[in-house]
Amino acid sequence: MEYIVNKNTQLSTGYHKIHTKDCKKRPKDENIIDLKECICPIEAKNRAKEYYLNVSGCKYCCKEIFYKKGK
Fold this sequence. Notes:
The protein is of the alpha+beta class. It has one domain (about 1-65). Helices cover about 10% and strands about 25% of the residues. The protein contains one helix and four strands, in the order βββαβ. It has a four-stranded mixed sheet with strand order 3-1-2-4. The longest helix has 8 residues, at about 40-50. It is globular. About 30% of the residues are buried. The mean pLDDT is about 95.
């Protein structure tokens, strides 16, 4: 599966969201970093952490790594 990470943070949490390339909630192309092919969302999260300290998965396409701040 191919993954991307949003360059922009979520205003409410400060996290950069990770999405699959085919997610309907993915950001615009100019706002993403391509994480390429990953075995699983955890590998995508590790790759995203090379760019950003605070990352979380999309609650729609990457539920395994979704983190809601304050929980």
